[in-house]
What we know:
Chain A is mostly beta strands. Chain A has strands spanning 4-5, 11-14, 19-25, 32-38, 45-50, 54-58, 61-66, 71-76, 85-92, 103-104, 108-113. Chain A has no helices and 11 strands. In chain B, the strands form 2 sheets. In chain B, strands 2, 4, 5, 6, 9, 10 and 11 form a 7-stranded mixed β-sheet that branches.
Amino acid sequence: QKEVEQNSGPLSVPEGAIASLNCTYSDRVSQSFFWYRQYSGKSPELIMSIYSNGDKEDGRFTAQLNKASQYVSLLIRDSQPSDSATYLCAVASSPGGGADGLTFGKGTHLIIQP
Amino acid sequence: GAVVSQHPSRVICKSGTSVKIECRSLDFQATTMFWYRQFPKQSLMLMATSNEGSKATYEQGVEKDKFLINHASLTLSTLTVTSAHPEDSSFYICSARALRNRSGNTIYFGEGSWLTVV
Lengths: 114, 118
């Protein structure tokens, strides 16, 4: 059974600091990895996707993937109070997650302290 | 803007009745749509994969006779919760896979539907 593990938190980070979110997954054949942000009562919104080992940067966000360690992380630089949300790690076995849906972790609740 | 629309966003129904939730892809054709359920403070759990023109594929533990899924066109999938009970109260979210890559992201989520069974 596919599993995606995240520390549920809450993770409290001062405004302007770097927030580091971590995720491990059990299925070695996973090919696609996603970070979603979900505000309370709302649908998740995609922050980053990453498919190959290494780092991928997009604005204040950097996703890191290490398939050998089955580990994916998300760094948020210059954290803002609006970044306070639950961050969901999601994994798929197919490229782009298109064929078989996503397996989600339980999410990490991030709090950015002003 | 939203590319996948869900309706209704909130619904309250009486125990024993059925409720239908619609998921529409607004500006692309979706051969595959996914239905998720999320209980409070829990993760999204995939319920079923809906393929246009064929029967849905349900995840283990999801009752196909209780959660009826219809994907009659490339832009619409519906989830009907039959004989709803209070334990079915949850946040139901659909997602749709675009036929072509768009900005590197092939999956789009709907806004979600809150179901409360009283």
